[in-house]
Amino acid sequence: MRAFYRFFSMFMLGFSPMLLAAPYKQVDNGWHGIIGSKVILRNEPYKGVDNKILPLPYLVMRRGNFFIDGLKIGYRIAEGTSGSFDLIITPRLEGFDADDSTILNGMGNRDFTVDAGIATVWKQGVFNFNLSVLSDITNKSKGSEVIASISHTYILTDKKLILTPDIGLKLQSENLINHYYGVNNAQAKPERPAYNGESTMNYTASLDLVYSLNKRSNLFMTVEYESFGDDVYDSPLVDKEQIISVILGYGWQF
């Protein structure tokens, strides 16, 4: 847990000059953005659990300083040429049902939670440095997560294709690890020994692709890769060292 807060403090100190310097910006009060649909194909880490297919609406909308960006709902506190600072709330779609596989029988369901916190972007040259700090507000996992990454956007083929690669680190707290991957003494079996993990660091990479069909219609795809730290992979519930998610969708701009 100490490593978690050291990591958080280090990045907040690094981003604080941008946050203090960014001016408040009020934009127009009409809704504008993109509406559509998407499907998430997710590789599950748990033993014996099939991959998930999740059809979801796709929204990227803003009105004044309020916004919706995919699964995130937020309020923009500050915005300037050097970056932005947001308050956000978002569901965490991880978890399992106890009947998803034999190894999970008797574990109890791990339903989705809702996280809230901050998200900030610091622009330095051609790169964006991204930081988010989130905590569970449903009191289910009582966990926290810090995600730090660097990204760069390429505009290709006469502005029809936009590529954004992103690489980063994801630090997850001990409470979050044990909610999703821990096994307490009452749940332990010979094939599922008791397990208590600690905070851990995962490594992430993603690629966003957006292709413009015309002025209002876009196709998009996101490929996300996550390599687990030891405290996830050592869990008796897990049989994968990494997972891959693919998101496909269509959006109409208004």
Structural summary, described in words:
The protein has 254 residues and is mainly beta. The chain has a single domain (2-253), classed as Porin (Beta Barrel), CATH 2.40.160. The chain is 13% helix and 50% strand. The protein has three helices and 13 strands, in the order αββββββββββαββαβ. The protein has helices at 2-21, 174-181, 230-233; strands at 32-42, 52-63, 66-69, 72-80, 83-92, 113-124, 127-136, 144-151, 154-156, 161-172, 200-212, 217-227, 242-253. Strands 1-2-3-4-5-6-7-8-10-11-12-13 form a twelve-stranded antiparallel β-barrel. The longest helix has 20 residues, at 2-21. It is globular and about 60 Å long. It starts with a helix and ends with a strand. Residues 16-26 have low confidence and may be disordered.
Share in helix: 10-25%
Proportion of residues in extended strands: over 45%
Annotation field: number of helices:
3
Low-confidence stretches: 16-26
Q: How would you sum up the major sheet? A: 12 strands, antiparallel, barrel
Spatial separation of the terminal alpha carbons = 45 Å
Number of strands: 13
What general outline do the C-alpha atoms trace?
globular
State the strand order across the main sheet. Answer: 1-2-3-4-5-6-7-8-10-11-12-13
Structural class label: mainly beta
- CATH architectural type: Beta Barrel
- The overall pLDDT average reads 90
CATH class: Mainly Beta
Could you spell the SSE succession in H and E letters? HEEEEEEEEEEHEEHE
Gyration radius, in Å: 19 Å
Counted up, domains total 1
**CATH topology-level fold name:** Porin
